[in-house]
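TODO from last week: model non-specific serine/threonine protein kinase.
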Amino acid sequence: MAHLKEVAEYAKRFGVTTKIYINPLNSIKESFYAGGILFSCLYDKKVKDVFAAGGRYDHLIKEQRLKTGGSYEERHAVGFSLAWERLARVSKTGAKSFFKKQETDSSVIFTERRCDVLVASFDMTILRSTGIEILQLLWDHDISAEMAKDARSPEDLLSKYRDENYSWIIVVKPESMLKIKTMSRKDVPDVDLPQYQLMAWLRPELKERDARAFSKLRSSASQALESMGLGQSEDRQEQDVRVLVAGTKSKKFNRRQVVDQAQLSAANLVRSFLDGPILAIETTDQVMELLRETSLSDHESWKRAEHAVTMNEKKYVRELHVQLDTWRSLYEKRAKSKHAFIYNFRTGTCVYYDLSA
């Protein structure tokens, strides 16, 4: 029980909002997990469907090893089985059955992301206290990060992560001081700063890194096109960026870099819209225009939409409203994007819908 309480406490400190159930009789092979723990990940719907399960297999390894003389070093193992085919399956739901299938056919497309930051410390106590706070801070700002294994020295830490590709390693020191090592550039010296200055330092570094990557990618693409005889035509120009400089005195800046960063930021913003869900419906374009004029915060707009459709369509419009309102609730819990789309698969019309409005 003490171990379970500790796990639950760490989950709270990491900001985990997913429901956690403790089920002592969950396993039919108790001997596999003796002295350890078994976990299952499931869709918490009407039918609780398991999509991943695993745990510690120390006892299983001990039981299955050869029963011969001699001493053996104790082995530890953690593993799980993931139904990735189901997670990656593209939903084919449509029409009115869309709302019913949402309960049992949850399909999620996941993508792999590089971890930008490794949070480490040479003091186990600091790593499990201040280190967790920093990790949570980075996650709150949508920066991918993970906690390092215990290490006694910089050499020990780097040896454990020699094959990994982090942009920065943050070493937490006593009195909330941080040492930040930039891994992607050898010309950047290590930085020492207090914890409260971390985001102020890291944000521009992230932008600069992304701008360099974007510029390099565009240059490589241009060279590849030129080598193939497919250079950029005069008719196809890059996105227009107008730079307006304030009248007050300001530091000098690189105009080319500003243009690149502006184009990258615009591209990232547009790309973020694609994280939003799509509601595929079966209706007319007249109803689509009515939906375009509605807002989840304006109940009167939905009443007007219901009054403008036929009796047969009123119930359908209410179902649309309920589904969008459900997504809005998830957005308010920071579990879903505020961007959504409504697609009419009968006419091919697609409209953008702001769940926060």
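Done. The chain is about 40% helix and 15% strand.
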